[in-house]
């Protein structure tokens, strides 16, 4: 399996089209972003090239390629407002394997290990993330990588007819911690 990570520096129209396809896939959308109602979940949202350029002003984005094919993206942001624990010098991470046939192959584990290394090189020692309570494959992956639950936000996102919780998790990745 040939996996490659490329830092996004200049988005293209082709990339934006792919991000729009992934971002409007209801199954993926229900796992990757909060939706407050069924209508919001089903609403079509359209990113522009400028939207992605604006993201690059505050977000470090990495594209995930499998066998030279774009299959996902991951990113981190330093000290965003939505951190559960407002500890400074914290990276908020996200990952999305956009191509359905590429999920469940172990790519997320490899990708997150790479992302953690980029964050460590930046000198940050703490990572925080949010994962919806019904996303059991992601929860299993995060626990396997050493993330620990630190809190929950109830009634955070709509899924399967009801409002569900967002689980907030954290991991310390300090340079001098063995095994990290």
State the shape.
Answer: globular
Radius of gyration: 16 Å
Helix-strand pattern, N to C? EHHHHEEEHEHEE
Helix content: 25-40%
Strand order of the largest sheet: 1-2-3-4-5-7-6
Task: Look at the helices and sheets and give the structural class.
Answer: alpha+beta
Strand content: 25-35%
Q: Which sheet architecture does the biggest sheet show?
A: 7 strands, mixed
Total DSSP E strands: 7
**Number of alpha- plus pi-helical segments:** 6
The first-to-last residue Cα distance is 24 Å
Low-confidence stretches: 176-180
Mean pLDDT: 94
What would your notes on this structure say?
With 180 residues, the chain is an alpha+beta fold. Helices cover 30% and strands 34% of the residues. The chain is built from six helices and seven strands, in the order E-H-H-H-H-E-E-E-H-E-H-E-E. It has a seven-stranded mixed beta sheet with strand order 1-2-3-4-5-7-6, with helices on both faces. Strand 4, helix 5 (107-121) and strand 5 (126-132) form a beta-alpha-beta unit. The longest helix has 15 residues, at 107-121. The chain is globular and about 40 Å long. The chain starts with a strand and ends in an 8-residue tail after the last strand. Mean pLDDT is 94; it is low at 176-180.
């Amino acid at each position: 399996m040939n996996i490659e990570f490329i830092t996004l520096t200049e988005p293209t129209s082709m990339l934006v089209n792919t991000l729009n396809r992934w971002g409007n896939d209801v199954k993926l959308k229900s796992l990757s972003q909060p939706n407050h109602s069924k209508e919001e979940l089903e609403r079509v949202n359209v990113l522009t090239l400028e939207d992605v350029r604006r993201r690059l002003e505050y977000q470090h984005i990495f594209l995930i390629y499998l066998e030279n094919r774009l299959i996902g993206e991951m990113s981190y942001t330093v000290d965003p407002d939505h951190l559960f624990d407002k500890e400074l010098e914290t990276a908020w991470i996200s990952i999305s394997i956009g191509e359905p046939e590429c999920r469940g192959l172990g790519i997320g584990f490899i990708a997150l290990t790479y992302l953690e290394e980029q964050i460590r090189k930046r000198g940050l020692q703490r990572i925080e993330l949010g994962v919806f309570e019904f996303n059991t494959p992601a929860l299993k992956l995060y626990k396997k990588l050493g993330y620990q639950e630190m809190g929950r936000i109830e009634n955070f996102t709509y899924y399967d007819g009801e409002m569900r919780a967002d689980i907030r998790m954290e991991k310390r990745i300090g340079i001098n911690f063995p095994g990290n």
